[in-house]
Amino acid sequence: MAEADAAAVPLAIRDPDEALVAEARERPAAFAALYERYLPGIYRYLRARSSSPEEAADLTQVVFLRALDALPRYRSGKAPFAAWLFRIARNLATDAHRRRRPAVSWDGLPEPPAAFDGSEPETVVLKHERLGRLRALLSGLDPAKRELLALRFAAGLSAREIAPIVDKSESAVKKQLTRIIANLKEHYHEELAEGGESLP
Fold first, then answer.
1. Segment 120-175, tens digit of pLDDT
2. Distance between CA atoms of 168 and 160, rounded to whole angstroms?
3. What gap in Å lies between CA 54 and CA 43, rounded to an integer?
4. Is residue 5 part of a domain?
5. Which residues form the domain of 92?
6. What is the distance, to the nearest Å, from the Cα of residue 13 to the centroid of all Cα atoms in its chain?
7. What separation in angstroms does the CA of 66 have from each of 41, 73, 86, 89, 150?
8. How far is 191 from 181, CA to CA, in rounded Å?
9. pTM over 0.90
10. How many CB atoms lie within 10 A of CB 164?
11. Residue 144: inside a domain, yes or no?
């Protein structure tokens, strides 16, 4: 984007990383600020698409190395920096999946450590069974739907941030996420009812 064009764009809708990217182009050490900002989201996204924490960590490292190497070719007018970075991660995860071939298990998603809350053992077992059913439903989704869920919930991106990554409009992403979640809820509750459990 030319400087005159950039000045015409209101500050509120400019890429918030624009200044950091410009600085990192001049001084590669400044890339550290972008790395720190996006490391958690990139790792969580890749963890949702990887077979192990080690693979996710390795892929995360490659994403940032590739981004740093390609930074001189990044054009802020085409897509926000976050979308550009997540596209690198997405392509890398897709390539890794092709090499690996077996389906990624959603069982591998990191869970927050469970503090003992005094729950009865039966309650804990039921919770784990319900999580297992939900993971089975997630693994049955087609890859494009799992991709949207990984970007939304593992990476923590908004529909607006996801849209340029998947080349869709923000409203299309919102609509698709709403449908996916509604469908998952419906199937989840049907399975619980078929199993004779009361709905949570």
1. 777 766 666 767 777 777 878 888 898 898 899 889 999 999 999 999 999 999 99
2. 10
3. 11
4. no
5. 10-194
6. 22
7. 17, 11, 12, 10, 21
8. 15
9. no
10. 19
11. yes
